[in-house]
Amino acid sequence: MGTDNLFHKRKAKRNRDIARRKASRAPYDKVLVVCEGEKTEPNYFLELKNHYTIDSANIKIDGRSGSSPINVVKYGIELYRREHAIGDPFDRVYCVFDKDTHISYQPALEKLAAARPKMTFFAINSVPCFEYWLLLHFTYTTAPFVAVGGISGGTAVINKLTEYMPGYTKVGRGVFNELFNRLEHAKTNAARSLEEAERTRTDNPTTRVHELVDYLQHIKTKPQ
């Protein structure tokens, strides 16, 4: 009897805690953004979140998954399951990762496509890397970035980016704010390059970062 009472008390407390969590959130989606890197991508999306004053109770940005695409996806699914188990799941989970030289890139895409529930998990993948998205703020290019002379495709993108942003580093802050005035231009370029890649049946270079950016820009007005 005592054990049953303790169980019901704990359950009632958990339900009250969940109700308080839900009540504390703004009336729009609860979203998880899991990033491959611990600095560049999380910093970028934190700055975006602050710029658009997205409620902290509505968005979790996490860069602790590790550096491989498959770990990003597994971590995102695990965090979703934890919240689902207590009755407060994320409405959307975005997994942000690069292709570059990662051998788990394709398995990560496949695992994410198979994740359930449908229309909850989204791949925000960049080829070869996130910096291609940043480069599109300055110029439109569909020239492939490939490994040459010991330099990876990702490094080649960064080298190109530093022609426009000489002070750029992967651990730097303020990138979103610095490039904000070019944001819509970058979104247009990213969508254009993705269409071109689909037409020519290639993926180098491409990015889907603009899809997440656009979603977060309009999260407050998205129909519930």
Structural features:
5-stranded mixed beta sheet, alpha/beta, globular, 224 residues
Q: Work out the strand percent.
A: 5-15%
Largest sheet: 5 strands, mixed
Q: Roughly what percent helix? A: 40-55%
Q: Count helical runs.
A: 9
Mean pLDDT: 91
How many β-strand stretches? 5
**Distance from first to last alpha carbon:** 43 Å
The low-confidence parts are none
Number of domains: 1
Would you tell me the structural class of the helices and strands?
Answer: alpha/beta
Strand order of the largest sheet: 2-1-3-4-5
Q: Estimate the global geometry from the Cα principal axes.
A: globular
CA radius of gyration? 19 Å
Order of helices and strands: HEHEHEHEHHHHEH
Briefly summarize what is shown.
The protein has 224 residues and is an alpha/beta fold. Helix content is 48%, strand content 11%.
What does this protein structure show overall?
This protein has one domain. The protein contains nine helices and five strands, in the order αβαβαβαβααααβα. The protein has a five-stranded mixed beta sheet with strand order 2-1-3-4-5, sandwiched between helices. The model has no long low-confidence stretch (mean pLDDT 91).
